[in-house]
Amino acid sequence: MKISHLVTEIEGHRSTKLVAFEGDQFVGHVDVYVKGEWASFARLFVREDYRNKGLGSELVETCCTIAKAGGATQIGISIAFCNEQVIPWYAKRGFDKRYEEDGCHCFTRPLPKRSHEQ
Ligand SMILES: CC(C)(COP(=O)(O)OP(=O)(O)OC[C@H]1O[C@@H](n2cnc3c(N)ncnc32)[C@H](O)[C@@H]1OP(=O)(O)O)[C@@H](O)C(=O)NCCC(=O)NCCS
């Protein structure tokens, strides 16, 4: 499995697209955005026949690593009301609900610095 990164920067927003391939087969993707202390990610998707193998978790953890490296202390995700079944999956990965907006549940996870990074 290989995860490719495409990084772009527009008006101070750094965006990284992660695309996962197994050989030449596309199997998953996610986009992560970092601006200042805040990061968010969107469009997390793993191809159905590649689910339950840890790829979704790996993509989210890679987003968190990129966000921390960019200076963020929090990362957020908007979950559409019509996709609520995925909430326990995020809760298990350290995301807590903050508020609801425009038909979405907004969840965040802190990105604590390790003591030697202070
Ligand atoms: C949500 C989604 C990204 C999860 O992707 P995934 O690759 O299946 O995620 P993981 O494999 O990391 O986790 C799934 C389960 O497999 C388990 N798992 C992890 N590694 C595993 C392994 N090596 N072998 C077997 N099971 C494993 C995990 O424990 C997890 O179980 P849990 O939910 O009880 O904790 C995927 O279901 C998806 O693309 N859904 C449709 C799009 C979507 O809803 N995206 C989110 C938008 S907000």
Give the SSE layout.
Layout: E1 2-10, E2 13-22, E3 25-35, E4 38-46, H1 55-69, E5 74-80, H2 87-91, E6 96-101, E7 104-110
Parallel strand pairs: 4-5
Antiparallel strand pairs: 1-2, 2-3, 3-4, 5-7, 6-7
The protein binds coenzyme A.
Coenzyme A is lined by residues 44-46, 51-57, 77, 79, 83, 86, 89, 92.
What does this structure look like?
This protein is an alpha+beta fold and 118 residues long. The chain has one domain (2-117): Gcn5-related N-acetyltransferase (GNAT) (Aminopeptidase, 3-Layer(aba) Sandwich), CATH 3.40.630.30. The protein has two helices and seven strands; from the N terminus they run ββββαβαββ. Strand 1 (2-10) and strand 2 (13-22) form a beta hairpin. The model has no long low-confidence stretch (mean pLDDT 94). Coenzyme A binds at residues 44-46, 51-57, 77, 79, 83, 86, 89, 92.
